[in-house]
Amino acid sequence: MDRDCGINRLHTLQPPDVTDHEQADGRSATPAQCPITANSIVSLLLSNGHFPKADKDFTRLTSARVQELPRAPGCDTNLSNEFTTQEIELAIQRLRTSKAPGIDGIHPEYIKHQGKKTTNWLCSFLSE
């Protein structure tokens, strides 16, 4: 029933009267002149980045001090280090047995029972 009321209400709405200075689609027949030009916007944007009375000595001193600051190491420094045998052995100890092999088809039990020589080889292989 509410749906009927909405449809009936839509039929009762009348379009606004079109005046002589408007077209039927609602646009004005003669567009009004915009007081803001593209050139004024560009000049304002360009002037915002410049300081007319910049203190050149202060700018040079500040730039020099920034260059002297020690550089912070990258956030992935620890990620790019080579693996140690202790890290490999710790990871192998944490492996759970009786689990399915990974995509490489190697069972965790095989890795847990490998010798020291294989652990060293694995360390050098993963560090390359």
Compact overview of the structure:
The protein is mainly alpha-helical.
Verbal overview:
The protein has a domain at 85-98 and 105-127. It is mostly helical. The model has no long low-confidence stretch (mean pLDDT 77). Helices cover 48% and strands 0% of the residues. Residues 11-32 are annotated as: Disordered. It comes from Lates japonicus (Japanese lates). This is Glycogen [starch].
Unreliable stretches (pLDDT < 50, length at least 5) are none
Q: Could you give the distance between the termini?
A: 74 Å
Judging from the principal axes of the Cα atoms, what is the shape?
Answer: elongated
Can you count the helices?
6
Instruction: Tell me the β content.
Output: under 5%
Mean pLDDT across all residues, rounded? 77
Tally the beta strands: 0
Taking Cα atoms only, what radius of gyration do you get, to the nearest Å? 37 Å
Which percent bin holds the helix content?
40-55%
Task: Describe the main β-sheet briefly.
Answer: none
Taken in chain order, the helices and strands follow as HHHHHH
Structural class: mainly alpha
